[in-house]
């Protein structure tokens, strides 16, 4: 019964969205009334999709195997958390989650957007409804999650064991919140193009949404990376897999958007470019979600889907993205640009940032799509792997990182680069000193390591330079410095923390790549081996039953170089329902570094173990958490809070940030 | 830093400023395009079935991806050293891999191995790609099997 209720709720949401689209585009000029109507519609859509989603969750939780989706993706023995996350561990359910987040953002705009000009609000909500109608329609007509199975089987087929992990409960919702959040920027861009009105207030509105989505996306990607790292058992944290690229491209474009919207908000410049970026970012998000799903790219994220469904998805993408760009081409020239600036200025630095980020996005896009294009045109099957991306992306990021610390120190309009350099002198000296010291002590195994270290330290220290400078640390009494530091605007703090996070991530990547050690060896219980000073003893091997699997556990004792022992347990699981094996690697964190241990399939009582020592690898994710934290911090800034932007420009008392 | 000439001079006209920015854009884009093209030429890896390997006379040492089925009864393990035969039904290639194979590596199932040929015609795999699902056969392998007439959807599962 609740299944049908859910199904009906989704159909109703689809109907309301469709009506909103027709009414909205026809009457957006009609003032408050239409905006109010659309706002109520947006909230209603959210409630209805939430009901639909709750119905699915309920069916999974009580193991209602009359629901086909539950049969294919659940099992009564599965722990509760995986029953819930199993709802979106498949194509149909993940579509409903996607739509739920879409309508949640729509409802947020509707509730917080009362102060928006009514025509802008109406157009934003209409465009948002258009997206809801398109994707709810797609879900209902091609991938109905509420299909029943008659007769209902007694037991389900279980979820892919790789997905039976806490990661599935966290990674997709975060990632989707990021992807889908950019739909708001997209809708604002479309609204600006249709109404032909775009000003600094527009940018002030869009920026918090961009920041919010970017924060979610940052966390989602970092979480996905860590999940792949510990669950897939390959010991790597990034593979330049098409799917990873698909999430990374909107992140790069979104980062660019974040910076260009800043220029637009403060200086009323880069308008057309910002609109363009807003469209591109969401288009890449759509590409990220659906190119991956269409079955064109093969990966862990491809839920078995039939080709017709992929075709519908691609047509839908072409329609949304193509339509947006058509509108852009027709209307962009009517937007007046303003805000002149010299090449060396804060604006100039942000343009440079955008240039490199956009180019990097392009390079990743080419590398991701080239095999598809070549396959379609020539019929040659190739793969573009990590070397391509390391080369192109690395070469584009290096200059960006080099100029990054200058950006926040330059003044708007026209800046003095020498003065900025003087303030960065100490950071540069410290970065060079540490790089030389570490290269001398650690030994340099790859030639690029010192350059990477230098860039990482430079960005990290350079980002803090502004904080130190503004607090007058060392020039006035410490207590006064502290007071100044605490009193700094949160946007300054968040800029510094986010950039510092970039430096930290770079350092983690460089350190792991340069100094990682690996050992593959035959090891049996009672035997001992050694890697990078860590002594591993294989204590015992045993079979242990789990909730819905049987585990073969290898118990190890690790003696760290500094003394002290810790136990590690590496597992191989065989899932009862599917008979599928998975590897659960053992990971032990020592400071910022990790020891990663994988147990191979035993053969006639001999065991193979693969051990990695990954120095400072946790910095990679810590940096991402810092970036996301900075995003949250900036959202708490009174001046930027979602829903509370001041409409008028504030020419006075605005610290140059 | 990046536009040193622009620092000290004052009174750039609007046109000059715009030109400077556009020139900068053009230079970076040109460099990036060159970079991408060079990387695409040098860093891509071709996918071959065992029959392709023989037919196209792939040079030893060249990085390729080899895809096909693991031939039944050919997987041998000695500690961490693995030997198995990759087949597309017409041609066999003996592959060697040192390390832990993916969980779902099984005889009779699809496999994609990255590596290069030895002068003797064998294949040294540096990486054997994991599959995520027991029904999953890499698309490239399906194509290769279809090409050799060995594709049996009922046994190999769906893509």
Question: How would you characterize the overall build of this protein?
Answer:
The complex is a heterodimer of chains A (657) and B (159). Chain A has helices at residues 2-27, 32-61, 68-73, 80-85, 91-112, 118-142, 166-195, 200-231, 242-267, 271-293, 307-331, 346-377, 386-403, 417-423, 425-442, 449-471, 478-487, 490-515, 618-635, and strands spanning 382-384, 517-522, 528-531, 534-545, 549-559, 565-575, 581-584, 586-590, 593-599, 608-614. Chain A is α+β, with helices and mostly antiparallel strands and 657 residues long. Chain A is built from 19 helices and 10 strands. With 159 residues, chain B is an alpha+beta fold. Chain B has 2 domains: 10-43; 46-156, Nucleic acid-binding proteins (OB fold (Dihydrolipoamide Acetyltransferase, E2P), Beta Barrel), CATH 2.40.50.140. In chain B, 34% of the residues lie in helices and 27% in strands. Chain B has helices at residues 5-8, 14-43, 50-55, 139-148, 153-156; strands at 44-48, 64-70, 76-78, 81-87, 92-98, 110-117, 123-128. A 5-stranded mixed barrel of chain B has the order 2-4-5-7-6. Chain B is elongated. At the A-B interface, helix 12, strand 1, helix 13, helix 14 and strand 2 of A face helix 2, strand 1 and helix 4 of B.
Descriptive terms for the model:
heterodimer; A: about 650 residues; alpha+beta; 4 domains; 5-stranded antiparallel sheet; 4-stranded antiparallel sheet; 10 strands; about 10% strand; globular; B: about 160 residues; OB fold (Dihydrolipoamide Acetyltransferase, E2P); 2 domains; 5-stranded mixed beta barrel; 5 helices; about 25% strand; disordered N terminus; disordered C terminus
């Amino acid at each position: 019964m609740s299944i049908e209720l859910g199904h009906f709720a989704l159909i109703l949401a689809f109907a309301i969205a469709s009506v909103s689209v027709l009414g909205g585009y026809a009457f957006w000029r009609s003032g408050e009334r239409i905006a109010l109507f659309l706002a109520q519609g947006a909230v209603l859509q959210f409630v209805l999709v939430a009901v639909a989603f709750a119905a699915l969750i309920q069916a999974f939780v009580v193991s209602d195997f009359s629901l086909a989706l539950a049969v294919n993706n659940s099992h009564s023995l599965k722990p509760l958390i995986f029953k819930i996350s199993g709802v979106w561990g498949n194509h149909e359910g993940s579509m409903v989650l996607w739509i739920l987040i879409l309508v949640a953002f729509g409802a947020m705009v509707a509730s917080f957007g009362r102060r928006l000009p009514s025509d802008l609000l109406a157009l934003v909500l209409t465009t948002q409804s258009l997206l809801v109608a398109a994707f709810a329609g797609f879900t209902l007509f091609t991938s109905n999650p509420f299909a029943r199975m008659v007769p209902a089987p007694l037991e389900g087929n279980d979820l892919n064991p790789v997905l039976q992990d806490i990661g599935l409960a966290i990674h997709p919702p975060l990632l989707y919140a990021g992807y889908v959040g950019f739909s708001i920027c997209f809708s604002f861009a479309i609204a600006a193009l249709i109404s032909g009105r775009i000003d600094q207030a527009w940018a002030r509105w869009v920026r918090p949404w961009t920041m919010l989505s970017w924060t979610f996306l940052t966390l989602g990607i970092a979480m996905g990376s860590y999940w792949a790292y510990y669950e897939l058992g390959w010991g790597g944290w990034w593979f330049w897999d098409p799917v990873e690229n698909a999430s990374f491209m909107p992140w790069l474009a979104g980062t660019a958007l974040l910076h260009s919207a800043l220029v637009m908000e403060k200086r009323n410049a880069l308008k057309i470019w910002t609109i363009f970026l807003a469209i591109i970012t969401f288009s890449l998000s759509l590409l990220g979600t659906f190119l991956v799903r269409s079955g064109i790219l093969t990966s862990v994220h491809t839920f078995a889907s039939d080709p017709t469904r992929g075709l519908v998805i691609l047509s839908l993408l072409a329609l949304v993205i193509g339509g947006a760009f058509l509108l852009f081409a027709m209307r962009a020239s009517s937007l007046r640009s303003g805000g002149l600036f010299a090449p060396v200025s804060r604006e100039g630095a942000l343009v440079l940032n955008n240039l490199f980020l956009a180019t990097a996005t392009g390079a990743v896009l080419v590398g991701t799509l080239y095999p598809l294009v070549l396959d379609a045109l020539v019929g040659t099957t190739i793969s573009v792997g990590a070397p391509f991306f390391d080369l192109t992306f690395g070469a584009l990021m290096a200059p960006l990182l080099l100029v990054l610390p200058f950006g926040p120190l330059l003044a708007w309009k026209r800046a003095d680069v020498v003065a900025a350099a003087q303030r960065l002198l100490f950071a540069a000296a410290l970065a060079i000193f540490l790089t030389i010291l570490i290269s001398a002590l650690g030994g340099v195994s790859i030639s690029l390591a010192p350059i990477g270290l230098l860039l990482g330290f430079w960005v990290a220290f350079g980002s803090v330079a502004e904080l130190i400078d503004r607090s007058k640390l060392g020039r006035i009494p410490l207590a006064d410095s502290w007071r100044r530091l605490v009193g700094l605007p949160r946007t300054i703090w968040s800029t510094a923390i986010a950039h510092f996070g970039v430096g930290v991530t770079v350092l983690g990547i460089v350190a792991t790549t340069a100094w990682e050690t690996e050992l593959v060896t035959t090891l049996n219980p009672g035997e001992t081996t050694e890697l990078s000073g860590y002594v591993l003893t294989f204590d015992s091997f045993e079979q242990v039953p789990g909730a819905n699997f049987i585990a073969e556990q290898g118990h190890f004792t690790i003696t760290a170089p500094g003394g002290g022992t810790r136990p590690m347990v590496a597992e191989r699981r065989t899932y009862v329902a599917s008979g599928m094996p998975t590897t659960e690697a053992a990971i032990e964190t020592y400071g910022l570094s990790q020891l990663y241990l994988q147990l191979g399939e035993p053969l006639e009582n001999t065991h193979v173990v693969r051990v990695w020592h990954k120095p400072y690898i946790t910095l990679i994710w810590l940096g991402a958490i810092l970036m996301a934290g900075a995003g949250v911090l900036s959202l708490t800034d009174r001046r930027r809070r979602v829903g509370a932007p001041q409409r008028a420009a504030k020419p006075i008392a605005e610290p140059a940030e | 830093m990046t536009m040193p000439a622009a620092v000290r001079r004052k009174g750039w006209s609007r046109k000059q400023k715009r030109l400077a920015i556009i020139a900068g854009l053009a230079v970076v884009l040109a460099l990036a395009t060159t970079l991408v093209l060079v990387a695409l030429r040098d860093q891509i890896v071709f996918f071959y079935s065992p029959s392709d390997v023989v037919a196209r006379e792939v040079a030893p040492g060249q990085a390729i991806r080899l895809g096909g089925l693991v031939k039944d009864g050919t997987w041998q393990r000695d500690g961490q050293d693995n030997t198995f035969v990759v087949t597309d039904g017409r041609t066999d290639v003996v592959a060697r891999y040192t390390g832990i194979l993916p969980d779902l590596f099984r005889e009779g199932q699809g496999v994609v191995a990255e590596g290069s040929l030895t002068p003797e015609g064998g294949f040294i795999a540096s990486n054997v790609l994991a599959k995520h699902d027991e029904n999953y056969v890499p698309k490239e392998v399906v194509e290769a099997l279809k090409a050799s007439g060995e594709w049996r959807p009922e046994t190999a599962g769906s893509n």
